[in-house]
Amino acid sequence: MPSKGFPPPSIASESNGGSTQAAQQVVVVAEPPKATDHPAQLLSNFLDDLVADESDYRTAKEYLGKDMNAAWNPEKQVTVLDGIQQRVLPGATSTRMTIDVSGHEMATLDAKHAYRAASGTLVHEAFEFTKGAHGWQIDSLPQGVILNQVDFQRIYESVNLYFPVAGQSNGSAPSPLAADPIYVRSHIDPLTDAADGLLDGPSDWLGPAVLPGFPTGTSLGGGNLDVTADGTVKVHFTGRSGSLLQDPTVCDRMAAQLFFTLMQVPTAQAKQAGQPINSVALYQGAGTSSVCTAGTNSSYSPLLSASADTSYFVDANGHLRSLDVGHEHGIPAPETVPGALAPPQAGKIGGFAVAPGGSGKVAVLSQDRHALYVSTLTQQTAPDHPVLTSSGAQGLTTPSWDALGTLWTVDTNPASQGLRALVGETLVPVTVAGLQGTVTDVRVAADGARIALTVKNGDTSSVEVGRVQRSGTAAAPQLTIAGLLSVAPTLTTIKSVSWADGDSVIVLGQSAGTARGLSAWEIDGSSALVPGPQPLSPADASTVAALQQDSKAPLLVDNSGADPNDKGKIFRLLPGSSSWTLATSLGAPTGGMLSYPG
Predict the structure, then answer these.
(1) How far apart are CA 539 and CA 524, in angstroms?
(2) Within 10 A of 591 (CB to CB), how many other CB atoms are there?
(3) What is the per-residue pLDDT for 297?
(4) Of 97, 123, 130, 442, which is most buried with the most CB atoms under 10 A?
């Protein structure tokens, strides 16, 4: 789960800068003000110092008057402009001057460093200068930091914070951890910044769907984060946080949150002599023995798939088969799933979803897609009744399953609620706040905290990502999807969507007048700052499948082209590769319905 940073990763995998990136890093030294400089030059130098390698902006603050030095909060927000223009406003005198800074707003980071894309509106900010005995100084300026887009891409990188999902309904099982992307300064101390961000709590957008995991006011303090030569991060907590470590469940969860957050930060501090972070150990106060530790095998791991190599598809005879796609050379023959998935009257499989996390549960649609059944990969007796039915002409859409045990689908019957959710065999009410249009497909993230909806509005389709808020009681749960974000704004036709690395989706779609292709989209909107869709060799692909949270799993597509010689073929894109290769030919299936668990 490496950080994305800039330039962006390929669709198949994400680059990990690591120690190589750190070794090539250029150090930017801040320049203090000169008493002889004119305000325009002082402002240029001040803006340059905002991107220098200083954690506390101490040199930049030398440009400010005494009162402003104490009042200015650079951590309030970051405003990203396409470029920065300066203009001296009318009314300047020999002792006072105002300079307007303007540019088109591309994005902002809030106080928690959560990214939000902006509309490109032209914004203006005023910097007021006063001349005193020691020259000109800034005595009024906007809160936060203003950067141009190029500098933002150079000095900031994306890091996922991990928080436990709130309101889970699957008993005593550990809550999955949901990714919450923020941006940290890669040239300072991104490891500590990421830890501080985690302790500050989730972003405003994700907050209603997750639990913070740490008591309010918890902080690392000075010298509380130590990375050993063997890749262990030692974290010492005091006060209330330290006492909480005595609860094994709380301690394990806190350690897991820190581990999965810190392990994907590409910084020299985290990669001593090429050794990545492999564990986090929590200590109470100044104790020398850890209270608990966490690593990749934590029960709270967001790596929810039982096997990174196993995908599934429906063959020409309508049978579910598994395909081991992870081998670099030579793919074993597909195997037929032995379980009895549906009663004979259901006919061939019309759609399916294998549950993530290794439970073996399978949801399958009847051939006419009017009935949904739940079974397992090995169950010997077919289910005798559907858990959900539809009387709509198109029936139910391909289901999607999260690790909390909630099964999602869309009922195409105009008289129905549209989006449907099942916990066990209980139909749970779903409210979609702020929806404009009709939901035509659904893909839930494995953690169950985020969900991607394909929405039809007039002649165009869009991908809207929302957070899943769980409320009610265990006997009468309720689900609300809120905070919808449009994540693929340039696409007008959506063919298939798959969750990728925890904070992004892969979309198979096209814009008006263009060929169908694949594109990766960050759910926070930061895709606007990176290159667009990549070309897709099998141009008639109908389904895309990515394995969330595992960048080692190949990206898959199946082909539904008009040419019988191509129909039903599966193509894969291996991590680090730029070319698609044929994985296997499936004869002539009715669609392939390719999918990883989820």
Answers:
(1) 28
(2) 16
(3) 86
(4) 442
- 192 phi and psi angles, rounded to 5 deg: -65, -40
Give which of 411, 409, 406, 381 is closest to 394, Cα–Cα: 411
> Which of 577, 555, 596, 551 minimizes the C-alpha distance to 1?
551
Q: Which of 40, 181, 118, 154 is nearest to 505 (CA)?
A: 181
Cβ contacts of 470 within 8 Å, gap of 6 or more: 165, 166, 167, 168, 169, 209, 477, 478, 479
To 5 degrees, how large is the angle CA 578–CA 465–CA 499? 35
The 10 Å Cβ neighbour count of residue 145 is: 21
How many other CB atoms are found less than 10 A from the CB of residue 468?
28
Positive or negative torsion for Cα 209, 214, 215, 221: negative
d(CA 277, CA 232): 6
Contacts of 181 (CB under 8 A, 6+ apart): 114, 115, 158, 159, 160, 161, 503, 522, 523, 524, 526
Nearest to 449 by CA among 235, 205, 248: 205
Q: Which one, of 221, 250, 395, 315, lies nearest residue 586 by Cα? A: 315
Q: Quick one: pLDDT at residue 267?
A: 55
Torsion of CA 592, 597, 422, 410, to 10 degrees: -40
What CA–CA distance (Å, rounded) separates 561 from 559?
A: 6
pTM for this one? Answer: 0.89
**3-state DSSP assignment of residue 194:** helix
The gap between the terminal CA atoms of the chain, to the nearest Å, is 18
Distance (Å, whole) CA 594 – CA 556: 8
DSSP structural state of residue 219: -
Q: Are 388 and 428 in contact (CB under 8 A)?
A: no
Given the structure tokens 């969750």, which residue do they identify? Answer: 499
| Residue given tokens 């700052």 in the structure block | 529
Angstrom distance (rounded) from CA 326 to CA 575: 10
SS3 446: coil
Token readout for 61 is 């603050």
CA-based diameter of the chain, in Å? Answer: 92
pLDDT of residue 345: 94
Q: Which residues pair with 569 in a beta bridge?
A: 585
> Taking Cα atoms as reference points, which of 574, 519, 506, 568 lies closest to residue 542?
568
Cα–Cα dist 597/306, whole Å: 9
Phi-psi domain of 285 (left: phi exceeds 0; alpha: psi -120 through 50; beta: other) = left
Question: How many other C-beta atoms can be found within 10 angstroms of the C-beta atom of residue 80?
Answer: 27
DSSP code string of 266-288: --GGG-BTTB---EEEEEETT-S
pLDDT block averages, 10 residues each, the chain of length 598: 36 34 61 94 96 92 92 96 96 96 96 93 97 93 96 91 82 80 89 91 95 81 74 83 79 93 70 71 86 89 63 87 78 87 94 89 96 96 95 93 93 85 91 94 94 94 96 88 93 91 86 82 77 52 78 75 67 78 59 81
Residue 550 has a CB neighbour count (10 Å cut-off) of: 22
User: Which of helix, strand or coil describes residue 409?
Assistant: strand
